[in-house]
Structure to design on (1380 residues):
């Protein structure tokens, strides 16, 4: 199957190139960028010397759909909504990594993204690609909306507890931390090495666009879920997300019981690893891999749960999950092209 | 005034040496270590060449009390409780940076520290040195218990809101993150550079010994404060703590109103800086200084507050606050020896 | 083919596990450690959960040789010399990643390693595995001595210029820098995160055991090579080596001419990439891959060459090159199991 | 004495603000920027809250010279040459941190800086501020040209050996490494955190503008000095420079003898610390201080010296040395305002 990447110069794009170049079933056929035309990819990314000879091409949706079986859209939010309809024309399947198709309610999109939402048709057609929780729909999808990085870690962490009704969803606090690649490749004072090194910052307090994405899914799982609090911080590392989550128990239970719920829930999911009770994952332990690792605890002093999930934001939080979803959409093995171990140390 | 440092080879000790060596009123007279005797400090810390010619001496409490007007105890918890009574014998004042004298209830100490508590007499005599909130007692103290690094940031952040009764203290979630120097100078796999670099880890989940210290003070301020949830993470940086705090409002109020409470509360406190509304501090913005910077927000969607405080864990979280307290104990200017700016970048 | 790793808990060992677990032709069958017995690998390395179920076993050379077709020896120098003869007994092939079999002259080993050298028989049998320059011998080898990390980068960088007799080898200055994983997983003050972070250190000045290894090979290539100067520094990164090399030209030539020599020399070597003239590689551009990237310049002001080579010290500098060599020893494709791209960013 | 800083938003500027704000003899009176006017400094640098209430002002040289006794010029090369003559008009003394006044030969400046040189008058008037080697002239200076960061470390390291004629200056290789703040506060892909983190890069190979500055001074000390080779690399740290230097001995001598030369040379220089023989400095051991630490070795195998010098590039490599020079120009104690210890860890 021929695959194309649009938005190939961003970090999501370059990670897609890395994964697709060694994928057993997809063949990376062409790469596109809004800002380049016929420029060797190595000019933008010297590390691709001899291993990716594709040129960066100007986006031409008609040409793309004639040639590609699947297109990965790794463009900024706002741009994807415009490209998706054009790309769907010729039986090409589309995996969109932007935020444009995640919120079912266009008013919500307007409020949080401060941009024009996608059409109702697109929003309806788009299948939310939180793989472990939506496999059947994903297998049928032609337009896939890949979840955000923070929502992926957070939702995988909360799903078992929320669905088993063990937590009281009236308040849920999510304190999330991300590596700097999550902020994209664009330049700004905040991501200047000398200022981010040895630093740790909170940003977009109570205004992050992933809030409504998480809220939407939690309410689908448990409509009694109250408004969540979700905070995002920037870590002085290149990749990795940790989501630390706090919620009250509905009624007292032991950590062992909760652990069992988590282990059973994810026992058949290769990419979600529940850590043994008492052990919590560090972000480096999934770096470069598609794993989401989860650790849980119950504090008897407070009757609250602590749930910790880590992912590599460019993998399970973006390109990796996008490939995982594309594998399902094309009937390939779910783990195809995603068997790389975490790179440790 | 002659000052001595016991436990000079640890990170708290070395920071005390840095500060006392340039202090206008204290003179660093001698430094002690449990593991060295008559060893030049430069052998342990080459950066002290030509600027600290003191030898590391074996701890001899009788000699110390005969010579020193003030002793800074920067030894591990457990050791301080034993040294403090001996040091107090000869009119020497003691500033203890360990956790041994912070918990007024010895049972609490046993439970969280898993060591033998200090004597009731010591616990009663010890004055808790959260400077901004206990100045009068500190000025009279001969035995000062310097607060923990996490409690300092957390308590300074919560005090105005809690005391003004604007938050409902039935649940308070504190998600704290610290630089690696907070874990001490001892060796372990967790602090191996290759494993902590690019990493971010949660540790001692629901078991950190600073939980009862924070709880104790919050209950003094508002006895209705319920059991807090307090989590600690390790950041891949050398110094710095951020405490991100969540709590429900008692009744709706605007962020502007809360901001005003914070600004008024700390208007005369040099070392606590309330950031302008909408701005949040990064840990690097206080590195090397004794400042605690605070930013606040109220989320109208959830009716909850977000309070963020940052400190340098070796300064306001340890040696800096210890000097600040010693200044008060001896009637010096509170900021003496602590005027260094944050080192940025 | 069944493969075993001895010394699996070190960084070389864990990287071998990563590579062998996804190798198309080798099957990782068992892993051994001097310090563990029947301990799940996940106990030492939690990131292996669900993907490596092998237990760490006590070293039993007889059992190993009965079961394994190839053994990768990733133990410290000194230990390998003793294990190798026992392992070679039963037709098992051995790839030794230590320094024990690299120096042909045992006196040299004694002087630089300060340990007892391997037997003359072992030293004679061992084939030096600088793959690109010794393929024919490697294909016949049963005992392979894998080059050191610094020598790999340095020798690949110098080979074309030295062999083409364009540099005057009376003096060659090699200024090398390595990530901290190169110092191993053992604990020491130097690799404590808080002390190595934001730091950069020179170590083993004029005493590094890789000096005689580099010298030996250079003299084989050009017997007129004078004594080299080789320095090693520690970088505050997890992986990566840069070797910056300076030497005088024999007679004036243009950078273009030298560039052509380099490009022609390595045109058929997949893992050595000569960068376009004017471009120099950063260490991150090979991280996680088996590439050695090289950039060159000639300074007309000084008539000297500057040659820069970068590798991932755990890959081309250890486990990656070991696999590359094993591939040749067993007649597999040279790049088998080594097709992973650099992980960027 | 009233001091002004022009170019206050750059890293050199902000470090000057840090130092001057706690200087016993200078009073920081005003700060200027080419891009701001009447903007509070805290808007650019939030860490200055409550401790620097000065506004950033538009550069007005007439106003500045009427008010300031000394002006620190921390603007980019090219701009300083134009401002200096205007500032010198009213008896104001000028300390220029740019490269504009360092090269006595304007043709040299044109060639390496690719900009228009300063006037011959300015070049003649400017005193080169390598403090330890030019005190008498500095004391008389009204226009001081502060040395570059790399030249400071390199020249202090080479001076004793070169002047004692122990090295053969026909070839000297200088391999230098700098923290990212040395590249300035401007944005570029190279200083994007996600790309510089875990990276190490060589840049401006054989083209760095500090080459002629170092060469010029070395030739003043020993006119037989041949063309030097000088390379620069970027370290993934915020501050710090290491210069590793190699040169042949004129005739064999012991490391002890060379050590003695170094110790005697710098015995009265507070800010140059010669490490004990066998010990080499790491960059972190001078961070935040004005020290230049030096370690030396002689390799009997090669008859070459290795000299290592480290500085904090923003301190002894820029703002610190500028203050040190200004202290001399005004007859203050040379160490005034510069007594801060290295911040370790």
């Amino acid at each position: 199957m021929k695959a194309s990447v649009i938005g190939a110069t961003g970090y999501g794009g370059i990670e897609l190139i890395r994964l697709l170049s060694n994928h057993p079933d997809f063949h990376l056929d062409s790469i596109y960028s809004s800002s380049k035309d016929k420029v060797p990819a190595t000019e933008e990314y010297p590390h691709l010397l001899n291993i990716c000879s594709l040129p960066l091409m100007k986006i031409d949706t008609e040409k793309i759909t004639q040639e590609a079986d699947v297109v990965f859209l790794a463009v900024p939010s706002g741009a994807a909504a415009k490209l998706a309809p054009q790309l769907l024309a010729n039986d090409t399947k589309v995996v969109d990594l932007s935020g444009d198709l995640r919120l079912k309610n266009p008013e919500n999109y307007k409020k949080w993204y401060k941009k024009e939402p996608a059409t109702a048709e697109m929003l309806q057609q788009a299948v939310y690609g939180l793989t472990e929780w939506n496999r059947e729909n994903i297998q049928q999808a032609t337009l896939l909306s890949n979840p955000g990085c923070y929502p992926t870690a957070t939702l995988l962490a909360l799903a078992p507890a929320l669905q088993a009704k063990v937590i009281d969803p009236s308040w849920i606090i999510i304190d999330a931390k991300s590596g700097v690649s999550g902020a994209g490749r664009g330049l700004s004072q905040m991501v200047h090495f000398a200022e981010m090194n040895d630093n740790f910052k909170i940003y977009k307090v109570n205004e992050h666009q992933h809030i409504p994405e998480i809220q939407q899914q939690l309410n689908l799982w448990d409509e009694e879920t109250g408004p969540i609090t979700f905070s995002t911080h920037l870590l002085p590392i290149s990749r990795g997300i940790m989501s630390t989550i706090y919620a009250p128990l509905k009624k007292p239970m032991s950590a062992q019981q909760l652990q069992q719920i988590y282990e059973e829930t994810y026992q058949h999911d290769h990419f979600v690893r529940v850590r043994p009770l008492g052990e919590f994952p560090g972000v480096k332990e999934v770096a470069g891999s598609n794993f989401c690792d989860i650790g849980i605890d119950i504090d008897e002093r407070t009757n609250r749960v602590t749930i910790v999930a880590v992912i590599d934001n460019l993998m399970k939080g973006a390109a990796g999950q996008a490939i995982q979803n594309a594998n399902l959409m094309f009937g390939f093995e779910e783990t195809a092209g995603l068997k790389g171990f975490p790179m440790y140390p």
